[in-house]
Fold these 2 entries.
Entry 1:
Amino acid sequence: MADRVVPWNNLPTDLLEAVGKRLKTKTDVSRFRAICRSWRSSVPPFDQKQPRFPIRIMMKLPFPVNCFFLTITEDTVYHLVPPPNINSDDSASTSSTRGWVVRLREGESGEPSMLHPLSSSFHLKRLPKSVFPKRLNLLEFRVFELAKTYTMYHSDHSVSSYRVAISLSPDWPAIMVVAAGKLYHCKLGPDIEMCTMVDTSEVFEDVICFEGKFYAVCHNGTAVVVDPSLEMTLIASPISPDHGSSVHCVKNLVESLGEILLVERHRRYLFPVKFRVYKLNAVERKWVEMEGLDGRILRVGKNNCCFF
């Protein structure tokens, strides 16, 4: 007997609900619900439990004595892949079939704005007609969410040099900030919170959130993990000075394919002259230098780092 073919709109409800529970992003939920009526009724709209960005926090450094506010924005980086049979009249002949990397930021009103993928401050008012199709129907594109990045702004709208990481986990919604070499923590909630200093004995350079915990790295490569009780545990020893640790070295942490990487930028004056990338060996508590990126692309910005 031939196998019975079940139409997509007649799939069992329990199967659709099981798939829906594994959708973690707003993009995936929206595209799932757009298939048909039965799929839409099986999964509720994406529930944004966390406070809506931008959010504001309060900082008080050891100097100056006055408190000041910072605004944190959230950007989402997407990879848009066009369908193979895209109409040549709607796109330039030079458009790549590999698609485009776009960066979107949702404002207070919910309206998204598009930024340059490599800049947190360069807003795109118009899409280049020579590159993008005239109509951009996201239901016709394959959409991949690559990364989320966070940027801090001072009250005068200038970009802050502080590093920030955010945990959106319901078990520990929190913010960690590296400012003036010190690590600060505050709760993530609907109200403006004051950041408090976590540790004063080390000079930190960067912090990220990975699997519900915060990981911070010091200027010499020492790395620690911070748990919800704000206890620190050493996870990596310092990098040997003959491997590039110097006053002209800037460090960034990044999560890539379930691994924690450390990116070192060696500068001469204001210009980068060399990059080194290390992978965390959690068992031996050390950084292991990588010879290549295994096909990955790392975008290293002034205040953050992410992978494509």
Note: The helical segments are 13-20, 26-33, 37-42.
Entry 2:
Amino acid sequence: MNTLREFKFISQKFDRPHISSNFSWEIRESIVLRELNDNGEFVYGEIAPVPGFPFQPQISDVLVEAEKWAAYQKLLSSSPLAPALSCMKSDIWKINIHTPEKKITKSILVPFDNVKCCKPSLKIKIGLLPVVEEIEKTKAWLQRLDISSKVRLDANGALSMDELKLWNDQFSTEKRIEYLEQPVSDEFRDVLFDFSNQSNLPLAIDETIVAMGSPYTAKDNGWNGFYVIKPTLLPDWNLTLKFAKENPAKTVFSTVYESPFGYEALVRASVFSELEAGINRENLKSQTKEFPSHHVEMLESPSATTRELNELWAKFD
């Protein structure tokens, strides 16, 4: 394979299945591109499709495109490699070991039965139970948390608008809830955007940003809540970073459980947000090809040097 351009298929098994309202996920598969840039340094980009998210390519199609790219064949502007290609060209790879490190606090995904977690920012999945039962369970769980805790509720689009209104009514004065993320599916986008203007419960979008292609598009269409951004699923990394710099108090960077290469890119991007990053990686901790620096409580950015990334690359088949 061309040593200036190469790619690898990477498969990672979660320590336990990742369960949301619309799927159960056991193995993460992705394609990572690597290229020698004009400065003589390797840069990385990743395609990491997520079940249940809009417009996700098939890995088989990504492999075909990666073969073309490695052979310097022309790609269409609509190529599924766009997120990886833009990542390799983005400014994050200009951040190196000589750049002052910045600290990044993570929001931790926890199950309902975890009442001992004392992290300042927590996330739980909802939309898994009948709505009244889940609301009562959430109320009881919140009462066991410190009053200063911040909680993010993630429905992955599982609620109906009537159910969202019920959550809003029941938690309109609950200060520990930072936001409710992607309460309804993207097909109800217009209704959600209108409702967000009157909701007492702060709301966030995630899948909708992917469907719209950019947080700027959502903002231009009137979204005034939080933006949970997965840059690995968006076509233009520099545009995403620009949005975060302009909206640091509304931007939350979020992982799609990338390989260590894509995750390092995400860590570097997260410095541009003022909010806790949704980039917990504990569900991959038992993997042997991981950076210990990606599993510390308080992340540093950058967390891995170019040399460390290159050494890890050599360990993957």
Note: The first strand starts at residue 5 and ends at 19.
